[in-house]
Design a protein that fits this description.
The protein has helices spanning 27-44, 70-76, 82-97, 102-121, 126-147, 156-171, 180-192, 269-277, and strands at 55-58, 64-67. It is mainly α. It has a two-stranded antiparallel ribbon with strand order 1-2. Strand 1 (55-58) and strand 2 (64-67) form a beta hairpin.
Amino acid sequence: MAARGRMPMMQPQVIVLKEGTDTSQGVPQLLSNISACLAVCDTIRTTLGPRGMDKLIVDGQRRVTISNDGATIMKLLEVVQPAARTLVDIARAQDAEVGDGTTSVVLLAGELLKEVREFVEEGVSTQVIVKGFRRAADMSIARIRELAVSVDRADGAEYRSLLEKCAATSMNSKLIGSQKEFFTQMVVDAVLRLDQEELDENMIGIKKIAGGAMQDSLLVDGVAFKKSFSYAGFEQQPKSLDAPRIVCLNVELELKAEKDNAEVRVDRVSEYQAVVDA
């Protein structure tokens, strides 16, 4: 009877980890996470500002990318450390929500972690640190709202001037910074052509054409398709038409190549004739 009432013995849990896996916990793990994040910040620190330097990145497929854009660099970095990957997520969120300031937000997060390291080493609870961050965030938002300036959209000239200043500021640290006056007008014109209530940025497309100078870029007030002529006699085809009539079709006019080794099974002669006619 006593044997029946005994509790079954718990089997010890065995966890198999890869060789070289970091098994630290507690404060050492927090310090390791902070160090990994600071290493990522040091990678893109030199790209900040108008005098920021470009980075040359070669991925696993031997594709070369030269950029000083924080979001682009963070996407190309193969960050494996989980804590450091949060910086990549921060950069992507900033790029999707605002479209600028990706490098600044990553470096700001890195500096906050750098200041926190001393408190972690002294044994301050992480809950106290997080509570301090939240209070600082509330105070910062309140201060920003005090400094905010309202813009009247009814005044078209003032509204356009503000958009031009914002666009020019975001281009200062980009490769097109030397031509920011030219592209500022183009960007603002494109944005003002959108529905000002929805502001769907997906309605603005960018077509990249090899060759030419940056000032050869132009804004098409409509729909543009990048299509090359590849049929016989295309040299005589007119390249420009004034006030043309456009037909919108939901079927393809181009013939697709037949698949190799295609197999068609039919049960009746009429089905075979339908295949031949097709």
